[in-house]
Each structure stands twice: as C-alpha cells, then as structure tokens.
Amino acid sequence: MLYWTVVFFIISLVAALFGFGGISESTADIAKILFVVFLIVTIVSFILGRRGRTRI
After folding, report:
1. Disulfide: which of 28, 36, 45, 55 matches 12 by Cβ 3.0-4.6 Å?
2. How far apart are CA 17 and CA 8, in angstroms?
C-alpha cells in the first residue's frame, strides 16, 4: 500500500510540473488517503501482533 502512495505522489508531482493542477490535486488527495490507510493498518497490525498467543 505504501508503494501505491509513492506512485500517486510521483504522478501528482509530474502533473504539477506540467501544469495539470486538477489532476495533481486529485492524485495528491488519493496519496494522502492511501497513506492514512497504511498507517492505520500498520498500527492495528502492531497492536494485534504484540498480544501474543495464548495457550489453551
């Protein structure tokens, strides 16, 4: 997911370089959303992974 965040960020930078403001803004928003989702998934995985296994 972090890969796609970087891809959309690069697309946003290239679009801004060529003067496509609308496309640049849209891809930057998508990159921000993907990054937030990545952070949430990472934090949840870290918390659930720290619980450890319980023996029955």
Report:
1. 28
2. 14
Buried b or exposed e, range 36-56, using 16+ CB within 10 angstroms: eeeeeeeeeeeeeeeeeeeee
Contact assessment for residue 5 and residue 31, using Cβ atoms and an 8 Å cutoff: yes
pTM of the predicted model as reported, rounded to 2 decimal places: 0.73
How confident is the prediction along the chain (56 residues), in pLDDT tens digits per residue? Answer: 789 888 988 999 999 999 998 888 999 999 999 999 999 999 999 988 877 666 66
Alpha-carbon distance 37 to 26, whole Å? 17
